[in-house]
Amino acid sequence: MQVRLFARYRELAGTGSLSLNVPDNSTALDVFDRVAERYPDMQAMRGSTLMAVEAEYVKPDTELRDGEELALMPPVSGGSC
Amino acid sequence: MLIRVQGAPLDLNEVVRAVERPSAGGIVSFSGVVRDQHDGKRVTAIGYEAYGAMAESKMRQIGEDVERRWPDATIAMLHRTGQLKIGEASVLIAVSAPHRAEAFDACEYAIDTLKQIVPIWKKEAYEDGQVWLEYEHRLAQANSKFRMQSSK
Question: For B2-151, CATH number?
Fold first, then answer.
């Protein structure tokens, strides 16, 4: 499956897009954990990470289907102060 | 509804014109602007990164919320990405309504909600380094929670 990474996660991975093989019925959190194994600095952010499938927020326990694109995102900080 | 995430500089006239109409007695606009300091540190620039397609769809969702909660209001929203200098606008919102109260309320709702749900991130540059906002804050929280748990 395709995983998109943004902001700090993109920097940690050195890329905004990863291809991963994941077992059937993997959840969004399973995929996060898989990615965070490669980039351990992400692990502390496990509880604060936003996840989206096809550009819509999903809960961490959402099961992913083949061919879907998952986005892993740090807490947002748009706008201004 | 005018909703856009763009790399080019934002123009306040564009959002104001987009909501002008004969039935509107008031137009409220909000400009979010890059400030020269944060927590006592001198900011030299801010970089904005967006998940573009999702950011626009979330901004559109906020716009639809606004027009549902304030049925007589019309809204326009623009957000900038890329490297911004001090004084440049990162976000512009305009709301028109028959009366000012609903225009003020709707505009405040829109910017508050945008900051919570729209996937855009900012990285502040200081004279001595760069920081992803909110990320660093949550990371510090997560680490202090971890330290508290491990010292139990």
Answer: 3.90.1170.40
